Amino acid sequence: MLDPKLIRTQPDKVRLALKNREYKPSQVDEFLAQDETWRRTISESDQLKQERNTASEEIGRLKKGGQNSEAKQEEVRKINDRIKALDANLKVLEEKLNQLLLYFPNIPHETVPIGLDASGNHVVSSWGEEKKFSFPLKPHWEIGEKLGILDFARAAKLSGSMFSLYMGLGAKLQRGLIQFMLDFHVKNHGYTEVYPPYLVRPEIMVGTGQLPKFKEEMYHCDADDLYLIPTAEVPVTNLHRDEILSIQDLPKYYVAYSACFRREAGAAGADTRGLQRLHQFDKVELVKTVIPESSYEEHEKLLKNAEAILQSLELRYRVLLLCTGDMGFSAAKCYDLEVWCQASQKWAEVSSCSNFEDFQARRANIRFRRDPKSKPEFAHTLNASGLALPRIMMAILENYQQPDGSVTIPEILRPYMDGRKQIP
RNA sequence: GGAGAGGUGGCCGAGCGGUCUAAGGCGGUCGCCUGCUAAGCGACUAUGUGGGCUUAAACCCGCAUCGUGGGUUCAAAUCCCACCCUCUCCGCCA
Question: What is this structure's pTM?
Answer without folding.
Answer: 0.93
